[in-house]
Design goal:
Elements: H1 2-28, H2 34-62, H3 66-87
Helix pairs in contact: 1-2, 2-3
Length: about 90
């Protein structure tokens, strides 16, 4: 399970970096899809940190560290609330 989550996180990060790189190249070549590629790359990069934090919170709860698990959950909720607020602006 941990290996699968780790691979998914790496894949998300590398996908985001790859899409942002492709968007940069597309922008330099005046390709219309550049902004779409950039948007997808940024989304991929913004999805991975909350996923990492959710995995960490679950890990803390799994080993009985409720205080750290609760703190991680609070930070995750604050991050998600900020993302929703920014998306609705």
């Amino acid at each position: 399970m941990n290996r699968t989550v780790s691979l998914a996180l790496w894949a998300g990060t590398l996908t985001g970096v790859g899409l942002c790189g492709a968007a940069t190249l597309a922008y330099a070549l005046d390709v219309e899809a550049a902004s779409h590629l950039a948007r997808l790359g940024v989304i991929a990069l913004f999805v991975t940190p909350p996923l990492r934090l959710a995995v960490a919170a679950g890990g803390f709860f799994a080993v009985g560290e409720r205080r750290f698990g609760a703190a991680s959950t609070v930070v995750l909720l604050a991050l998600l609330a900020a993302a929703v607020h920014a998306a609705n602006r």
